[in-house]
Amino acid sequence: MNENVFEKSVEGRRGVIFPHLDVETSEIPEWIARKSPIGLPSLSQLDVVRHFVRLSHKNFSVDTHFYPLGSCTMKFNPKINEYAGSLDGFINIHPYQDSTQVQGALEIIYGLENALGKITGFPHVPLAPNAGAQGEYVGVTMIKKYFESRGESRSIAIIPDSAHGTNPASAVMAGFKTIQVKSSDRGMVDIDHLKQLLTKDVACIMLTNPNTLGLFEEDILEISDLLKKNGSLLYYDGANLNAIVGKVRPSDMGFDVMHINLHKTFSTPHGGGGPGCGPVCVSEKLKDFLPYPKVIKHPEKGTYQLDSSREKSIGRIRWFYGNFLIILRAYVYIITLGIDGLQKVSELAVLNANYVKERLKKIFHVPYDKICMHEFIISMKSIKSDHGVTALDLAKRLIDDGIHPPTIYFPLIVQEAMMIEPTETESKETLDHFITIMEAIYADILKDKAKVQGAPYNTPVSRLDEVKAVKEPKLTV
Ligand SMILES: *Cc1c(COP(=O)(O)O)cnc(C)c1O
After folding, report:
1. 214 lines ligand 1 (CB under 6 A)
2. What ligand 1 atom has the least distance to the C-alpha of 261?
3. CA 36 – ligand 1 centroid, Å
4. What is the C-alpha separation between 67 and 70, in angstroms, rounded?
5. Ligand 1 contact, 138 CB (< 6 A)
6. Which of 293, 436, 418 is nearest to 362 (CA)?
7. Using a 6 Å cutoff on CB, does residue 237 contact ligand 1?
8. Which pLDDT score is estimated for 2?
9. What's the 320 CA to ligand 1 centre distance in angstroms?
10. How confident is the model over 406-424, as a mean pLDDT?
11. Residue environment code for 336-349, b if the CB has 16+ CB neighbours within 10 A, otherwise e
12. What is the DSSP letter of 367?
């Protein structure tokens, strides 16, 4: 059937018929009147509904497809979160309402701050940042202020070569220079190199643990010791906590400040540019610089209010109090699972990743092959040199098989990288299905590689020129 709504257009056909006017008409002023037709098709309401529902079915989503993205955890969002996020009492409040009328909402903000404080071991947890990257910016800006307040002019942030690109970007925006510390053959921070870099000018290191290779930083205590002896602080990129929630606390590893992505670890919707939430978790040392407003609880009355009286604060970082309905969803996720449930999440996330890794390493090269955390990397480097098939080809072919492609070409230190993160909620059957598909693709690489190199074949459009699509978007037919 013809799916092109422009070709289906029939002059005069309508989706909505308005009642006859019962007021006088007036002319539209020339200067705002449209000069040429808008070019939309004329369709019935049913045509329009079918068009958009059909388009929505062409999407990949966690609710429809296996989505082992890697780095940006795409986990199932339990529907009870959505139920809470649609309750009248939450969706029909306004940030300008007096705090006495929104005690429930303030209690939820306070409750999530406490829960994340327990999970990470930090006493202060402002929730306002809109995304992980904004949380990073807030965290490193607090580090900057901390050194300024002590009259120290430390200007350098050390960042591993495996870090997420937002780390150097946030550090530079906060006014730091960045230098890179190398990874060792084991995929860990190269301690000897780190020692060479540690001068009195180093304000902080920004570390991701488990790192972007999916490995737990084994020397973390030695690293934090070295930094502390140097008078520097430690920033923890906690965008992806899926392997460690309820298992180990960044504060115990010696960190001073971190951010978390609720839209990754804590099951709030993720994608399409937001809305997200990147809470910052802060040690006592940095307390004075916390952004405002902060929700405080009256010690006797037990009531809540917003407090903005902070002298040395880095200031307000966005309007009102962040993405409240996202905060609410994450809170529901945490209280429905409880600490036992969260620990189980971590265990299953790690188990699933290791299961898939152990099966796939028989055919694909796993460059850092040891027990991984919630994700792992394969490299298509040798397959590319032997057969000319790249990580991009593999990713595109997975689309044909109904699987959202994992992250590719990241981290930058692995050539032809594909980063696989199955997440905790997938069943063994789904994981086995994925492995079978990867095996079938490998068989095609050996026998009939056009089936991989030219993929996807089953989509409305095949290979797009991705740069051109960004530079010259084609928004009309
Ligand atoms: C996703 C991610 C970020 C950035 O988070 P956004 O919400 O996308 O800004 C930072 N670090 C790591 C390791 C990430 O995976």
Report:
1. no
2. 7
3. 44
4. 9
5. no
6. 436
7. yes
8. 79
9. 23
10. 97
11. ebeeeebeebbebb
12. S
CATH (residue range 81-335): 3.40.640.10
Strand order of the β-sheet with 407-408 is 376-379, 417-420, 407-408
pTM value?
0.91
Domain borders along the chain are: 1-58, 81-335, 344-471
What DSSP string runs through 285-345? GGGGG--B-EEEE-TTT--EEEE---SS---B-SSTTS-HHHHHHHHHHHHHHHHHHHHHH
Query: Residue 232 C-alpha to ligand 1 middle, in angstroms?
Result: 23
Q: What is the pLDDT of residues 151-193, one digit of tens each?
A: 999 999 999 999 999 999 999 999 999 999 999 999 999 999 9
Which has the closest alpha carbon to 350: 370, 332, 365, 366?
Answer: 370
**What's the distance, CA 195 to chain centroid?**
31
Condensed to tens digits (0 to 9), the pLDDT of residues 327-385 reads 999 999 999 999 999 999 999 999 999 999 999 999 999 999 999 999 999 999 999 99
Binned at pLDDT 50, 70 and 90, residue 273 comes out as low
Residue 469 has pLDDT above 60, yes or no: yes
Fold (topology level) of 344-471: Aspartate Aminotransferase, domain 1 (3.90.1150)
Q: Residue 274: what pLDDT?
A: 62
The pair of structure tokens assigned to 312 is 């040395």
The residue assigned the tokens 């780095």 is: 71
**Mean confidence (pLDDT) of the chain:** 95
Task: Please give the share of the chain, as a percent, with pLDDT higher than 70.
Answer: 99
Pairing relation of β-strands 407-408 and 417-420? antiparallel
Tell me if residue 53 falls in helix, strand or coil.
helix
Q: DSSP letters along 139-208, please?
A: HHHHHHHHHHHTT----EEEEETTS-THHHHHHHHTT-EEEEEPB-TTSSB-HHHHHHH--TTEEEEEEE
User: For residue 311, what pLDDT is reported?
Assistant: 86
